[in-house]
Amino acid sequence: MSSRDPIDEKLERLVSQALRDQPLRRAPASLETRVLGELAARARLPWWRRGIATWPASVRVPVIAICAVSVPAVWILSLWLAAHLVSATRSRIAGPLATIRDAGHTVSSLGALTTHIVQSIPREWLLGGFIATATLYAALFALIAVGYSLLFPRPEYSKVHVT
Q1: DSSP secondary structure string, 47-70?
Q2: Whole-structure pTM over 0.85, yes or no?
Q3: DSSP helix, strand, coil percent of the chain (3-state; round to 5)
């Protein structure tokens, strides 16, 4: 049992047949010459400038073997180096890390103090303060707009139109 509608399948067959019946189009001559020129230029490249799949097997096999050996070697070397760097710098970093930890505790204490102070203020006062601040900002923007329009009048609004 098919989950597709027979009408959809018929439409798909009709569209596929109509597309297959279309004549093939030839590429523009300029494109054809550029592509053929690029293919000829790539064919003239020396073997080491082409892709590794076209290299001679006598060169390709050692290169792949060296790559396969170098990946784990670099991994092991980086782990060894990281372990030695951590042990060498642990004593040098301990002092600054303690300072940063103390600063974090100070910031945390200030945050707790700020939270306690804000929670002790009645909500009505906070709401009134927010409303007063918003009103003052709106008045400030209105005054700036009026001052700007007085300092830089637009000519089309300053002329009196007599009809």
Answers
A1: GGGS-GGGS-HHHHHHHHHHHHHH
A2: no
A3: 80, 0, 20
